[in-house]
Write a structure and sequence with these properties.
By secondary structure, the protein is mainly beta. Helix content is 11%, strand content 56%.
Length: 133
Amino acid sequence: MRRLPLLASLTCALLGNGCMIRHYATLETAGSEYELIALNSTASGLLPGICGFFVGRVTEKEGVIQLHSHKEKYRANEFEIVDADGRVLDSEKLDDSYVVMDRKHRRLKICINLPEGKFDLNGRRSYHEDSYR
């Protein structure tokens, strides 16, 4: 009986460490008018499923940022954010918010200040490009 809790905790520890989550962005250029940044997260490894655990990969869309021009730094009135539920965030509420793109090193910095609190997608990400010209 003493081995059962030890075995159970060891099994949970091993299963819990079998998953890797990665956040990434894709820059989509659609002509010369605007660019879209698709923000995604991918979980891969040993994942919980309906009938137990399975080995696989799941990708989830976190949101989209539509940039209204091509430049390095964007202020709140120069982009729109569509969250994962399809809602567009009001740009008038995004005081002191910005998006910075380092095109040379393909890095993206998102700093969105919402009145109701922290924006979940803030931070630095690398991106790759998809062109639809």
